[in-house]
């Protein structure tokens, strides 16, 4: 898995948080502004619709008044054709918005001889023309404008229609029923109409600017488009047919609501030609028309969208600036760390001369760098010290090794030691433990007849023991060569060793002097393990211990000398506690009985073979467990004077 | 090696168990020095629990004895048997020190 650095994680975390905050701000800003705009546009729509409807109503109301007053005038019985003609001309002259006016009488109501009587004054090429409506092709009293007013018994605006006569203008007719008093009764006598050309209305409506593509449309009482920016719709389509054709059900709902004379504000998903939009509509109650204003959503919210975009852009720019800043800051924080890491790796791989980069920032990284520098210096010092110490230790070890070699070198190692002597045979071996120990053995002639041999074991280990051993060995030889008894030798040597022996070192010693002519052997024992005497053809036996103290502890000790006689073929086996206390892996000791058992198996072997056999037995017993003490053995086999080589 | 100290009247009884050899001898030296530092002048070293003693162990005992005697104190040993007794006997230590069969006897003296 790839690691992500602190800088990346820090930057990612902060930027993610910033992004969330920014999104919330932009989102909130958009929603709130949008709601403000929508509510403002609702007011604007209402205002615009009201103003527009007022302007329309004002014109239509004026027309209504004219028609109403004609109708009122006609209730007067004294009315004649001339009067009607004048009335018509006067109305047209005084009311430029009125295109034409008719006074349509019920059949035979004006003149019992006339089925049709409907003088119609209208504008034609800048003058006022008149005609009489009604023929078998045009039975005006079957027309809507006449029927509605008559049946409903009130003034009505007809559905708009195209004037077939002049210029296909969109016309609308206001019809007012008029009555005459006949025998005290109000009898319906006909209908007065005022035709108006709706071009002004259409123009007025199409001139209303609603954003870029917004528009106003006007529906008749049946939902027919009276005015729309799309001229194809006018008088050809109703809002319902349009909804059906364009498959916009919500438009049908709006249409129903409009025709029911309601006011409303509706959000549209998909208005034909516009897309998302808001529609505000309100009725023109007098004419039973309904006016609607369409606000294209994208334009209406263009400001909000623009604002949101601007905010978002500012946000994004800010975000990028923040990102750059954070990345550079976190980079600048972690760059020294990275440098340190590189250096640390190099230092870790042993290059202590790597220069720690200078980081002067007074912060944790600076602290780390200076700690690092200190660490490097300490480490260097430590390693230098360690190297020096190791070198010193190696030197000491090598000196110890050399000392050990010297120590071992002072022990006689050449066998056969006296090849020209046949009276006896001597063999000794020392197997030094890993740590410097203090075992010793020696043999030498004190004079022509007396052969001295000894084994000793200095207490403890290490250099002191080695020194003590060397001193002991030297003293022993010097003192023994004076021809003293073994006991006296030990007493003398003890006195010398015990003097000023602050370290409480001591040495156990077994020293024997054999007369090679007679086999008489005198010996003394300073706290040493009892040796084994192997008499030829007999079981081995311990040389009884004298229980006299170890040497080097107390001055003024006197050691006794014992005597035993050795016959040809007898062997005296002297050893140190390294033999009997040799241990296997489970810390079991080789022990005295085992030694005796091994020796019991031997008969007529040379001194060398005897030592080798015991050695092999010890090795078999310990099974390779680490040796903790020197293993020293010495065998002296007496052959007797018969074996003497007289030359 | 384990050492347990116990005050028995005028005597401080030191029970030494386990093995007293080159490895454990320095511990014995330290513990004995602590006993001396605590102003104990009469010490019984009970070796009943000791299984093995090497020449390094003997040297520690010798050094301990020398120290306490130099200060005019007294040291006795008890509970020697088996290998330990053998070593004490052969090395002549038995002749150098006062030995008792049990710690109780040593304290009673």
From TrEMBL, chain A:
<dbReference type="GO" id="GO:0007165">
    <property type="term" value="P:signal transduction"/>
</dbReference>
<dbReference type="InterPro" id="IPR029151">
    <property type="entry name" value="Sensor-like_sf"/>
</dbReference>
<dbReference type="InterPro" id="IPR003660">
    <property type="entry name" value="HAMP_dom"/>
</dbReference>
<feature type="domain" description="HAMP">
    <location>
        <begin position="331"/>
        <end position="384"/>
    </location>
</feature>
<dbReference type="InterPro" id="IPR036457">
    <property type="entry name" value="PPM-type-like_dom_sf"/>
</dbReference>
<dbReference type="InterPro" id="IPR001932">
    <property type="entry name" value="PPM-type_phosphatase-like_dom"/>
</dbReference>
<dbReference type="Pfam" id="PF07228">
    <property type="entry name" value="SpoIIE"/>
</dbReference>
<keyword id="KW-0812">Transmembrane</keyword>
<feature type="transmembrane region" description="Helical">
    <location>
        <begin position="307"/>
        <end position="329"/>
    </location>
</feature>
<dbReference type="Pfam" id="PF00672">
    <property type="entry name" value="HAMP"/>
</dbReference>
<keyword id="KW-0472">Membrane</keyword>
<keyword id="KW-0378">Hydrolase</keyword>
<dbReference type="GO" id="GO:0016791">
    <property type="term" value="F:phosphatase activity"/>
</dbReference>
<dbReference type="Pfam" id="PF22673">
    <property type="entry name" value="MCP-like_PDC_1"/>
</dbReference>
<keyword id="KW-1133">Transmembrane helix</keyword>
<protein>
    <submittedName>
        <fullName>SpoIIE family protein phosphatase</fullName>
    </submittedName>
</protein>
<dbReference type="InterPro" id="IPR052016">
    <property type="entry name" value="Bact_Sigma-Reg"/>
</dbReference>
<dbReference type="GO" id="GO:0016020">
    <property type="term" value="C:membrane"/>
</dbReference>
UniProtKB/TrEMBL annotation, chain B:
<dbReference type="GO" id="GO:0043856">
    <property type="term" value="F:anti-sigma factor antagonist activity"/>
</dbReference>
<comment type="similarity">
    <text>Belongs to the anti-sigma-factor antagonist family.</text>
</comment>
<feature type="domain" description="STAS">
    <location>
        <begin position="1"/>
        <end position="109"/>
    </location>
</feature>
<dbReference type="InterPro" id="IPR002645">
    <property type="entry name" value="STAS_dom"/>
</dbReference>
<dbReference type="Pfam" id="PF01740">
    <property type="entry name" value="STAS"/>
</dbReference>
<dbReference type="InterPro" id="IPR036513">
    <property type="entry name" value="STAS_dom_sf"/>
</dbReference>
<protein>
    <recommendedName>
        <fullName>Anti-sigma factor antagonist</fullName>
    </recommendedName>
</protein>
<dbReference type="InterPro" id="IPR003658">
    <property type="entry name" value="Anti-sigma_ant"/>
</dbReference>
